[in-house]
Write a structure and sequence with these properties.
Blueprint (H helix, E strand, L loop, with lengths): L17 H13 L3 E5 L2 H11 L6 E5 L5 H9 L2 E5 L2 E2 L6 E3 L2 H10 L3 E7 L6 E2 L2 H9 L5 E4 L23 E4 L1 H4 L7 E5 L21 H13 L6 H37 L5 E3 L11 E2 L3 E5 L7 H12 L5 E2 L3 E5 L6 H17 L22 H6 L2 E5 L7 E2 L3 E3 L4 E4 L7 H12 L4 E2 L8 E5 L1
Parallel strand pairs: 2-3, 2-6, 6-8, 8-9
Antiparallel strand pairs: 1-10, 4-5, 7-12, 9-10, 11-13, 13-15, 14-15, 16-21, 17-21, 18-19, 18-20
Helix pairs in contact: 1-8, 2-3, 2-7, 8-10, 9-10
The protein binds pyridoxal-5'-phosphate (PLP).
The site of pyridoxal-5'-phosphate (PLP) has 14 residues, from helix 2.
Length: 450
């Protein structure tokens, strides 16, 4: 199967045959005007969309965004206007952005070229994309959505609404997160604002992109994609698209029912609490993906990190995330009742073995406020030195620190290493949270910019 661009197999960078056909089928399935396959994950799509802007433009980005945004900002030379994500007041995890927060960012910043949302969040919580889009449409600013974890939304009406349906100009879907595809498969799905009017007789009416932003987007997409795209990956996308169209709704319906049943049962286990729909009572959150099962373990004598370890070691269950206070299991549309039951039984057994002795766990999981001193590109280009972390107070960070998973940075290159940040990093270390980014993963030392 692992052939290359032979005449019958089309050309990824000039698609006119089977790849073009597969992309058109994908666009139809996802409700997009145009779909562009990504064989290097969502990261390449996020980078390409950021590069569709002009150097120096401001881009509004929620702070609970994935680390790949930083790379895109470096490549594009744009300036982030970071906005805070609304956090769960109890768990302290960033979940969604309020429309009002974006309105405020637009009032206080000129030259905003694009606004981004991460919806769903890593925890499955979705923003009010339609409201944000209304706000931006008045100002002719495109809305881009990192919908990495929401590629399954178009296939069942009771799941959160896909962002394209609510007016997003472009979304990045990480197919490999929720579809049955090979890892790295993703898709850049474009909505109307990037497109020519169908039937227009302008020279680019054959589905090519019209605006200058669109032209830059296509250049960036080709620049960032290998000239040897993997056919197994592309075939995997095409097969999964066909599967989702034929079987997606049925599988998602089963998953929806299992999720409702097992979340109720998990909530009856003493010492654990399962989160979900009630998050829609928090500002900015209008829907929650039922496939993300977030379980708080505050009522037990184990941390979420220890719980994750027990599940892996003793029950052969790999959770998506294990953080100090929670674990998150990520069910797929193909897990069956036995899988859900196994997870439930394992949590129930651990809860019996580790009842709480009444000790309250620490809660400061949310990263402290950031202070950007240099733009991402300036910080990327600046010479770096390594210093002891303890001595780095009030210096400018030369590298990123992101909890992993989910890969959301708490410190970015070019930002001030404040007392609050130092305290937060010490907390991550104490809780043995895995981090990505620093050359010294033990966080004894850190790169700084002089
Ligand atoms: C919300 C979000 N966006 C983007 C990405 C990057 O996706 P990929 O790993 O497919 O490049 C991730 C990866 O975990 C993610 O969770």
């Amino acid at each position: 199967m692992d052939l290359t661009e032979l005449p019958e197999l089309d050309d990824f960078h000039e698609p006119q045959g089977v790849i073009d056909q597969a992309q058109r089928l994908m666009a139809r399935a996802c409700g997009a005007q145009q779909s562009l396959f990504l064989v290097n994950g969502c990261t390449a799509g996020i980078h390409a969309l950021l590069m569709s802007g002009v150097e120096g433009e401001r881009v509004v980005i929620p702070r609970n965004s994935h680390r790949s945004f930083f790379g895109g900002l470096v490549l594009a030379g744009s300036i982030p206007v970071w906005i805070p994500a609304e956090a769960d007041p109890d768990l302290g995890i960033g979940l969604a952005v309020k429309t009002e927060t974006i309105a405020e960012a637009l009032l206080t910043n000129e030259q905003v070229g694009a606004v981004w949302l991460t919806s769903p969040s890593y925890y499955g919580t979705c923003c009010d994309v339609a409201a944000v889009n209304r706000l931006l449409a008045e100002r002719d600013i495109p809305l881009m959505v990192d919908e990495a974890h929401g590629a399954h939304f178009p296939f069942h009406p009771l799941y959160p609404r896909p962002a394209l349906r609510d007016g997003a100009a472009a979304v990045v879907n990480g197919l490999h997160k929720t579809w049955p595809v090979l890892t790295q498969c993703a898709c850049l799905n474009l909505g109307r604002p990037f497109q020519v009017n169908p039937g227009s007789d302008s020279p680019d009416s054959s589905g090519q992109l019209r605006s200058q932003r669109g032209v830059r987007l296509m250049s960036a997409y080709h620049m960032l994609t290998t000239t040897s795209p993997s056919y197994p990956l592309m075939a995997s996308i095409d097969i999964a698209r066909d599967f989702m169209e034929r079987e997606g709704q049925r599988c998602l319906q089963r998953a929806l029912e299992l999720s409702a049943e097992y979340k109720t049962r998990l909530n009856r286990i003493k010492g654990v609490r399962c989160w979900g729909e009630e998050w829609t009572n928090l500002p900015g959150i209008i829907a929650v993906d039922p496939l993300k099962v977030v379980v708080a373990v505050d009522g037990l004598e184990v941390t979420g990190i220890q719980m994750g370890e027990l599940l892996r070691r003793e029950y052969g269950i790999e959770v998506e995330i294990a953080q100090p206070r929670i674990i998150m299991a990520m069910f797929s549309l193909l897990h069956n009742r036995d899988d859900w039951e196994r997870f439930y039984q394992a949590v129930a057994k651990i809860a019996i073995c580790y009842p709480s002795a009444g000790k309250k766990q620490e809660t400061n999981y949310l990263p402290p406020p950031w202070h950007m001193v240099l733009s991402p590109r300036e910080a990327f280009l600046a010479p770096k030195n390594k210093v002891r972390l303890k001595g780095a107070r009030n210096m400018i960070a030369g590298e990123m620190v992101a909890m992993y998973p989910p890969g959301i940075p708490c410190l970015l290159p070019g930002e001030l290493i404040s007392d609050d940040i130092l305290e937060h990093l010490a907390y991550l270390k104490r809780m043995q949270v895995q981090v990505q980014g620093p050359v010294d993963p033990e966080l004894e030392s850190i790169l700084i910019i002089e």
